[in-house]
Request: fold
Amino acid sequence: MTFKQLGLAEPILKALEEEGYENPTPIQEQSIPILLKGKDLLGVAQTGTGKTAAFGIPILHHLYHSNKDQKGKRKIRALIVTPTRELAIQIDESLKNYGRHTGLRTTVIYGGVKQTKQVARLKQGVDILVATPGRLLDLESQGVLTFRDLNFVVLDEADQMLDMGFIHDIKKIIAKLPPKRQSLFFSATMPKTIVELSKKILGEFEQVSIKPQQATAEKVEQGIYFVSKGNKVHLLRELIKERPGESILVFSRTKHGANKIVKKLAQADIKAAAIHGNKSQPQREAALGGFKEGNIQVLIATDIAARGIDVDDLALVINYDLPNVAETYVHRIGRTGRAKASGIALSFCNNEERAYLKDIEKLIQQKVPVMPPHPEVEEEAYDPVAAKKKPQQRGRGGGGRKPQGKSQKKRSDNNRRR
Ligand code: AMP
Reply:
């Protein structure tokens, strides 16, 4: 299947060619025909699958074709609501790229910054608006923008919106939408509350599901290090030192943890920055910008902050902590091995995190290969027999590093036990 076969407008095909997109990703192949027919869509998919183009391209196609009927100042005809500033900026950039030859105008609004510039851009007239919920409602209530002319509405990352407490904002937005519209609803997971919310926005819809295990298993090489809590920083430093000049994204479960890692890496002369909810918008942008440009080698992110990070050539993701929600693991490793590249995701697992690993493996329906102990990190081998006798000493028993052959055997024992 090619983009041309999907019957897209020439200016869009041209932009996709310039982007280097040769073929549609599975979600694009499945969603674009549904959306071109004008149907509502429920997409079960995460970022990293090519989701933005899957909804963005049909919207651009429709708007481009109806552009000639437009008179006077541009009206907001498409709205994309997404939970974080980072994601909003990312989607805006992507739509500007895909739509660069269409003459359509896209802009983005989000909270945490002054509204003046955003208002000025809206006043010039835009066709497509990307927004986070709070700022959107705020500017709507001030009369700076209206939902009246919307033909297309996308609710993106719905599960994350709920996690972040946007449910009331989302309901308010839905209540204000014009009845005649095409609606798209995307969520990586589908708990009951999300299904209920989707019913509020969608009319008759078709569903497309891209399973997380497909997205991860196919693209990302994974590995797990069994490492004690105290040795994690040491192991991280070694893995970074082995990859001079490579951009590495590290996940930390907590904001405080992220700051601590930055400090520890600085002591080893490794340039790192943290990105999380306690950082101001300029701080986040500086960290992300520095990372994208290669001035900061390592970015330490918490889960919420990381969803919008889309960096080309991100070869390695490290899970410094294993997430306690298995789906988060899939989101995290989706930061590498994006649609056009394959990547590596390495995870650190201490004794307390073994239960999390079990959940993750159940979700992705595969065992994460166990990495041999790092030669520079003195870690005692996991001994399942000793662990059975003294569960409190898991991972600490045994007698130092084992010769390669033996530790290989231990690893397969490990795998069987988990
Ligand atoms: P998304 O899931 O929308 O965040 O997209 C993930 C990444 O895949 C982005 O870096 C896109 O530029 C890239 N991408 C999306 N669609 C394609 C495609 N058909 N071919 C190659 N890369 C793509």
Q: What stands out?
A: The longest strand covers residues 220-226. The longest helix spans residues 51-66.
